[in-house]
TrEMBL record:
The lineage of its organism: Bacteria, Bacillati, Actinomycetota, Actinomycetes, Propionibacteriales. Pfam families: DinB_2. Residues 207-259 are annotated as: Disordered. It comes from Kribbella orskensis. This is DinB family protein. Residues 207-226, 245-259 have a biased composition (Low complexity). Residues 40-172 form the DinB-like domain.
């Protein structure tokens, strides 16, 4: 496999996150702000002329905005639980969150974007509240973490890694929506695209097809690089090489933060 995974230390040259800079409070502040930006981007798109734009996958193997947002929401919740687990246990061993399995099991693509956006924000605040009060000794406490390889990780690293997750996927969400707004659909419809509301069901069905429902498992596993990842990133469009990746296709998108 030649796809790249975002790093878990040092500088991520895709989103600019740096594990080596920034203090705890600043990192958490940024995390909460960027979570809010994820929420707002999703809300804004869902409130637009075609709410289902959030369910469009730019490529069959690349998650849609709602799928990324659901992932970010779940990451924030799982990581908050891990903070609590780390503080409560002598030798914490974190259970994998099964992020690829959740996509189908929790039906990410069918979830309500407004509810997802609200939950994402709520979990970000709760994570932030739990992280801000950690003392230096607590931040240094180790637990056995699964991604990218099973290894002891400090609580401080978990905070930073969570912040990287949010920053990385905030970029994914904004880039995807920047490409899709205004919607690149409509998908062919027999009737007139009457009211947005009436067309919603049709659009969902029409969109389900290009999203490659049947291939989801294989597709996502392929895109992510490992089925057993725990809290791994989903590289946008990293299936073959960078030229086909989202970053390659949306050079203008990364700065189009119209939210
Ligand atoms: Zn990154």
């Amino acid at each position: 496999m030649n796809k790249r995974r975002p790093p878990v230390d040092g500088l991520c040259d895709e989103c600019g996150f740096n594990y080596d800079t920034g203090d705890l409070q600043g990192t958490v502040t940024t995390l909460v702000r960027q979570s809010a930006e994820c929420s707002m981007a999703l809300t804004k798109a869902a409130a637009g002329p075609d709410a289902d734009v959030v369910r469009i996958r730019p490529e069959p193997e690349v998650w849609s905005a709602i799928e990324y947002a659901c992932h970010v929401r779940d990451v924030l919740e799982v990581q908050r639980f891990r903070i609590a687990q780390c503080l409560a246990e002598d030798r914490p061993v974190y259970a994998p969150m099964d992020r690829t399995g959740r996509v189908k099991q929790a039906k990410y693509e069918d979830q309500d974007p407004m509810e997802v956006a609200a939950a994402l924000m709520r979990f970000a605040r709760e994570f932030g509240a739990a992280a801000r009060v950690l003392t230096p000794p607590q931040l240094g406490k180790l637990g056995l973490y699964n991604y990218p390889v099973r290894a002891p990780r400090s609580l401080g690293w978990i905070i930073r890694h969570t912040a990287h997750e949010i920053q990385h996927h905030r970029q994914d969400i904004i880039n995807i929506l920047a490409e899709l707004e205004p919607p690149i659909i409509p998908a062919p419809k027999p009737a007139q695209p009457a009211e947005a509301e009436a067309g919603t069901a049709d659009a969902t069905e029409a969109l389900a097809e290009p999203a490659g429902t049947a291939d989801d498992s294989a597709g996502l596993a392929g895109a992510s690089g490992a089925a057993d990842d725990d809290l791994g990133f989903v590289p946008p469009g990293r299936v073959s090489d960078d030229a086909e990746g989202l970053a390659g296709r949306s050079t203008g998108g990364s700065s189009a933060t119209g939210i």
